[in-house]
Amino acid sequence: MSQQDLQSADLLPSSVVDCRSAMKELLPRLRAALDVMPSPMPDRPGIVLRDPFRYSEDTLLIPPAWVPLLSCLDGNHSELDAQAMLVRHGGGELVFSADLRQFVDMLNSRGFLETEEFFAIQERRQAEFRASAERMPALAGGAYPEDPGLLKETFDPRFEEGVAAAEPGVRNGRCVGLAAPHVSPVGAGIATQQLTAWSTLPLQRKHL
User: Fold this and answer.
1) Mean predicted confidence (pLDDT) in 20-30
2) In sequence order, which residues have a C-beta less than 8 Å from that of residue 72 and are 6 or more positions away?
3) Three-state DSSP class for 45?
4) CB neighbours of residue 25 within 10 Å
5) pTM, 2 dp
6) N or C: less crowded end of the chain, CB within 10 Å?
């Protein structure tokens, strides 16, 4: 924007001044209980946001250009502060207020900000949980198969291997508990940990 444009903007009606005042309002706070991690996809860098409480079912990938904005979502920074932050980290490239508001609105609509919209989502989900007579597995279909048959096929070999690997003195012992070091049955080092944890589980108790 040129100096002439700035001078002209100062002469615009008071409605524009109201808009500027709105830009000084504090942005909402990003929820503190979110999982925040680097993107695991080399071709899609950025920061991944996920709700471990599953009030929001969405997993968001924040592009690198927008990551600095997250530090402004603390309840103490305005839209103008956020714009300045993004311009500074973006090498001087201008960030339009409409784009910034669209990004913040996206976070808000998906329940990632501490706003009335999130608290309404939270109350609704908690009410649904309290009213439900059945507790559904939250990670079925993601960390492990949702289909019972496929789930049994996945875990049966692990139980059998674990029992076969157990010391002779504990193979016929009574199972008093199951140590599950990780929610996912796959991953580096996890299979070994699970075989150790399940080594005393009798075959007759393996059905899921």
Assistant:
1) 73
2) 27, 81, 82, 85
3) coil
4) 10
5) 0.59
6) N
